[in-house]
Amino acid sequence: MYLSRLIQPVYFGDSLWICLKDFDFTSFCSQRSIIDTANLLFACVFYTCVIISLIRTSGRFRKSWIFLLVSIFCSIISIAFYSIGLWNIIAKTGSSKQLSWSSCIVRGFIWTSLTVSLLVQRHKWIIILNSFWWICSFLLVSSLNIEILFREHAIEILDTAQWLVHFLLLFCAFQNRGYFVSQSVPESLSEPLLAEEIDTKQTGLGHASFLSKLTFSWVNPLLSLGYSKPLALEDIPFLLSEDEADLAYQNFMHAWESLARERSKHNTKNLVLWSVFRTHLKENILIAFYAFLRTIAVTVSPLILYAFVNYSNSGDTDLKQGLSIVGFLILAKVVDSLSQRHWFFDSRRSGLKMRSALMVAVYSQQLKLSSSARRRHSTGEIENYIAVDAYRMGEFPWWFHVSWTCPVQLVLSIGILFGVVGVGALPGLVPLLICGLINVPFAKIQQNCMARFMISQDERLRSTSEILNSMKIIKLQSWEDKFKNLVENLRANEIIWLSKTQIMKAYSSFLYWMSPTIVSAVVFIGCALFNSAPLNAGTIFTVLVTLRNLSEPVRMIPEALSTMIQVKVSFDRLNAILLDEELDSSDGNLRTISRSSVNAVEIQDGNFIWDHESVSPTLRDVNLEIKWGQKIAVCGPVGAGKSSLLYAVLGEIPKISGTVNVSGTIAYVSQTSWIQSGTVQDNILFGKPMDKIRYENAIKVCALDKDIKDFSHGDLTEIGQRGINMNGGQKQRIQLARAVYNDADIYLLDDPFSAVDAHTAAILFNDCVMTALREKTVILVTHQVEFLSEVDKILVMESGKVTQSGNYENLLTTGTAFEQLVSAHKESILELDQKNENKTRTEESQGFYLAKKQSEVEISNEGKLGVQLTQEEEKEIGDVGWKTFRDYISFSRGSLMLCWIILAQSVFVALQTASTFWLALGVEVPNLSSATLIGVYSLISFPSSVFVYLRSLFTAYLGLRGSAAFFSSFTTAIFNAPMLFFDSTPVGRILTRVSSDLSILDFDIPFSITFVASIPIEIVTIIGIMVFVTWQVLIVAVPAMVASKYVQGYYQASARELIRINGTTKAPVMNFASETSLGVVTIRAFNMADRFFKKYLKLVDTDATLFFHSNVAMEWLLLRIEALQNLTVITAALLLILAPQGYVSPGLVGLSLSYAFTLTGAQIFWTRWYCNLLNYIISVERIKQFIHLPAEPPAIVKDNRPPSSWPSKGRIDLQALEIRYRPNAPLVLKGITCTFKEGSRVGVVGRTGSGKSTLISALFRLVEPANGDIVIDGINICSMGLKDLRMKLSIIPQEPTLFKGSIRTNLDPLGLYSDDDIWKALEKCQLKETISRLPNLLDSSVSDEGGNWSLGQRQLFCLGRVLLKRNRILVLDEATASIDSATDVILQRIIRQEFAECTVITVAHRVPTVIDSDMVMVLSYGKLVEYDEPSKLMETNSSFSKLVAEYWSSCGKNSSSNISRLQH
After folding, report:
1. Long-range contacts made by residues 451-456, C-beta under 8 angstroms, separation at least 24?
2. Nearest to 453 by CA among 505, 402, 382
3. Is 764 exposed, middle or buried (0-12, 13-18, 19+ CB in 10 A)?
């Protein structure tokens, strides 16, 4: 028997000296002697080098564990040889069939030397010598062993062991040359080069040789670095210029513009699609060539198997013919491997360029969209265009080439089927066609479910984004449960479509595995019926391999078509935004940078409208001439069109008729502060170079100097997203400083003083507007009547018209609208005057001096932290092992499900193997009928598809469980997180976890786990079958598997960090696009669009370089694993060719090769999914980071709930209250003790940042007291649940917040009140008239963040909410800052009437708002300076009297003389 011959050792007596003396090159003895002589020479040179290196300064070599392991194997072999030699000496044996003692000693010495060479590598030249020695030794030994196998069909056990160790030596040689391991470079050499390398570091592809490109070796330095240390963003090389976003965008726009010119002829053409096609056609022709080569290489595999089986079946064996078949197999495998890897890499590289170009195109377009177009494309939608539609293009080229290669593979495979079995293949086409057709509705249903899922996901993400941005008001109002339920309901709707999609995948899997079984059985029946081909091993296994090739395109075609449809939808969505209306500067809007005109701003017969469907224009009959250097004030009631007038000057509001001419540069300060994420300095400089004098002046005139001194990092303090860690006054002053520093010609200031106290407002008006901008043209929208007498011209607006214009004195005598405004202001001044009859008059002369000179505003340490508030995003470093995987399984309670998955896979593989074994053995049985052969095969193989279906079903349920568990825990953690978390965490970080990370949990992780757990069963089975037929394949298979695992671990070290870094580079791209969308008016006003565009290009490239290097690293790995596994396949084929005639039956040859051909695919499939799982599991890490957030105190404390009538009085006691925002941070409130009596009105005043807002936060327990207590009606608020507390308190916050929805849902989110109650509340807060004119009344829409209502109207909505709640305690946190004085007076009267018996705490900037309070609290530096009745405080030289004096000075000087004139 062949097998016993191979096991039996064959010895050759081969004394080295005898063999060399009687030299015969064809004898094994002489060849062994040559190898021994070569090794001895290498050993001598090695020892000489070691002696020299000992004399010279020794180098260092970091020993790898693999070197130590191989050295142990070498020493074991050397001991074996010494032992055999010693035994021969003792036993005095001299048989010619045994090794001579001298040969044993020589070879023992050689293996000892190899052991030493592995451990002693002191210098670079010794490393080179050793590597060369090991490679040469491997080649010589391999050549000899292969020749022995060819000639003798046998090999010694000891030689087999030596050969295996030589494979390991070869591996060590490659390690020495920089493959698979990091190069150790002395620090002294590398450090001086770092500075030069950082700027010029570019990916190795640009200067790689052909061989390096072919094998992806140019990425070795990055993988080597990643293996030696965890990669950081600065370690990742830059993209080539041809792959950068800028060039990709330019090429795209060139094609776009060319097609746009031809558009009149082809109106239906999708410009985005055709522009992409034109731009990337050439590179995709090459990709198509790779894809075609791969298709051919895969398709010919059944023919190679057919040739193998026929060769083994033929009586006359010609070794050359057998070797030529092996040669064809090698060629097919090499072409398959290389073409597929380059197809995948180049298609994703092309997709990267498409993705970058379209992301940049969308961003560029949002900088140009008109106001009406921006309403059609909200911030959330623009994020989706970038994050979903443009991102999808990264995979588009790959799917495109799949969509045409699959039909080609299908046609070629059917052709081969007909070529092998003839007309017998015809019946098989019927079930194949049926399975293909069934796939189509499956794909449509799956696509429909996916589309509905995406719509549901968009809705959830929009709501989540809105909720996260408004979390402060949600917590203040205790609406967490309501909004948490909203998000969970949206997610539940999403889960419905997700579960349908996943279950449809299970049906698809069943169909995928059922079709080859049915088709093969029908084809075999066809062969038997038509006698078109004999049912022998060649026919049967060729049909099986061909059908396996057929099943892939049958499965992939519907999926590819579905993806193509999704891509088409994305192209249409992108086409819609890129073709939408842009801001038109040509249509009568002239804006020039030069100061060529006489007037700075000129509007003639201007009519403007926001909504073209509206009946009347927003602004009517505007005629305006503003000369250079003039100071213009615009005033009027809420909703009069003041902000719209500024938009008209900016060219932001659509113009119906008239002309607008603006000369010179513009600086704009919006009513709602727009602050970028970044430092205070970045926000002020706004891209301009630093001019220290101008910068310091801007800070000083905007009263920011004290604030900046108190910030822990000065002007380098990080500002959170949307300025979340700054108070309203600070944000507004940073905006103003940005405008001042910009040094523009024209300044448009939209109510910049509403967010600051009267003293600061006076400083800003006098020092900034009137002094720093004295030579500038300023248009100031304001509600502060006190400043109007200082300006050159006042425009009074009402209902969208400029009803009056002129200077202060003229308007007082002529107009009614202006008279009303001043009368309202007069009331507050007279009230103030009555309380301060003597004191204010005596201080009037010095008051104005006070306001002018006292620019060093007092500031508390509020917000002063030891570290930056917004920290760099946290990510894990290094290998976290399988802990996260175990967490996923335990979190989703999926252990049992995973066991069922593995069991189902095991049964499936067992049945599949049994069915093919039956065929292999059955064809050898002479009298077995075709019916029995086919029937038993069908009975065994059909049930296997059911187990695949069960496996997929269990996988779907595992994924759904995991998604539900993680989402529920994550949502609960976020809604329970303290307010400090939201202040210090950009919204983008949270959103990426509930969007892209959650999508990975939904779709990718469950199937990754299943494949990683189940494919090894298949691989072990394949190798088992190969070993069963030819056990010698283990000699290559085992080292190949070990090497594959090592290479995989080597790759994973870098890939893991690349994915983690990529997780932190996506969020900035989305955040920046979102920020730009919110601040696009400011960006355009400052003419900064180009700078923002360039910054976005850098962010896109940073994100793209991670995608690029992740892909190339994956292809690098797969190419090497394919090579290792192909070595096993080729070895198996070679052993079958070398086997003696008749030793292996044709059935087993077919069986072995049909499985061998799937080995590489299975190993690659497993490797890809294993690496994907390790990358995907990072999403679990990221979500878990936020699941374990520290929680707020409980919403309800069951044992300590207040009575339902609490608080019945409204008495508040502050007892030694101390507040700090973080442990070890400075105190913000310092030991405040006082009592707010029941039913009293308490005014809280102090400089900007003195701790007023912190006091309110403490009252609502947004921040817990460090020491002291807050007692309301005898109950310590810290002892009860947060919901019980917050539901009993009412607040009108500093920043009014509305949610997308209707007026009703905004006033009454919990649905507690009737329409009648809501209308009454609206009437009291002055909104009934406006809303009753709307067609949908209470169901009228509120857009994102209330964008379709003015800031003043939004504040009135917030007042409406508290009028509905009617709690005993009401807090007004600078609630009337954004409304005019007349409306403010009305509202204060309403609050006095409606909340007469309530405790009202008013934090205010306007002194008249608190002057009629029962008590006034004055805060400074977080300390309680004064707390008394305002009349008593006015009689002394108190801090409050100084504040009143400052207010009086800022308004009394400007208005008092005119008020007296008005009274007459």
Report:
1. 451/566, 451/569, 452/497, 453/494, 453/497, 453/498, 453/501, 454/388, 456/490, 456/493, 456/494, 456/497
2. 505
3. buried
Q: State the pLDDT confidence band at 647, using cuts at 50, 70 and 90.
A: confident
Q: 450 with 508: CB under 8 angstroms?
A: no
Task: Find the helix or strand (DSSP H, E) in which 1423 lies.
Answer: strand 1423-1428
Count CB atoms within 10 A of the CB of residue 201: 13
Residue 380 identity: G
pLDDT of 347 > 90? The answer is yes
- In whole angstroms, give the CA distance from residue 303 to residue 329: 10
Torsion of CA 914, 915, 921, 924, to 10 degrees: 180
Distance CA 820, CA 611 (A): 30
Rounded to whole angstroms, what are the CA distances from 645 to 635, 747, 785?
Answer: 11, 13, 19
* Chain centroid to CA 1105: 14
Q: In whole angstroms, give the CA distance from residue 1059 to residue 1052.
A: 10
Supply 49's token pair: 């080098």
pLDDT band at 523 (very low <50, low <70, confident <90, very high): confident
CA 1236, distance to chain mean position in Å, is 49
Asked if 675 and 683 touch (Cβ cutoff 8 Å), the reply is yes
Give residues with Cβ within 8 angstroms of 929, minimum separation 6.
none
pTM (two decimals): 0.70
How many H helices and E strands in the chain?
Answer: 51, 24
What's the Cα-to-Cα distance from 798 to each of 640, 672, 818, rounded to whole Å?
Answer: 5, 21, 10
Whole-angstrom Cα Rg for the chain: 40
pLDDT attached to residue 317: 63
Burial of 1090 (0-12, 13-18, 19+ CB in 10 A): exposed
Tokens at residue 1393, please? 């009437």
Name the token pair of 1010.
């299943």
Which residue, among 527, 570, 335, has the nearest Cα to 418 in the 3D structure? 527
Q: Is 209 helix (H, G, I), strand (E, B) or coil?
A: coil
The arrangement of strands across the sheet holding 1241-1246 comes to 1289-1292, 1369-1373, 1399-1403, 1241-1246, 1415-1420, 1423-1428
Contact call for residues 753 and 784 (beta carbons, < 8 A): yes
Q: For the beta carbon of residue 1238, count every other beta carbon within 10 angstroms.
A: 18
Residue 868: the pLDDT is 52
Q: Which residues contact 981 (CB under 8 A, 6 or more apart)?
A: 1189
Q: Could you identify the residue written with the tokens 């900046």?
A: 708
Q: Using 50, 70 and 90 to split pLDDT, how confident is the model at 828?
A: low
Axis crossing angle, helix 396-421 with helix 480-530, rounded to the nearest 10: 20
Beta carbons of 616 and 580 less than 8 angstroms apart? no
Location of structure tokens 């309301």: 1272
Asked whether 1276 and 1269 are in contact (CB, 8 A), the reply is yes
User: How far is residue 476's CA from residue 1287's CA, in Å, rounded to a whole number?
Assistant: 9
- Residue 45: CB atoms within 10 A of its CB come to 14
C-alpha–C-alpha distance, residues 1342 and 693, integer Å: 45
Per the CB < 8 A criterion, the answer to whether 930 and 480 are in contact is: no
- DSSP per position, 153-186: S---HHHHHHHHHHHHHHHHHHHHTTSSS-----
| Helix orientation angle between 1034-1078 and 1089-1138, rounded to the nearest 10 degrees | 170
- Residues 6 or more apart whose CB falls under 8 angstroms from that of 51 comprise none
**Burial state string for 856-883 with b = 16 or more CB within 10 A and e = fewer than 16:** ebbbbbbbbbeebbbeebebbeeeeeee
Q: List beta partners, residue 659.
A: 604
What element of type H or E holds 1459? Answer: helix 1439-1463
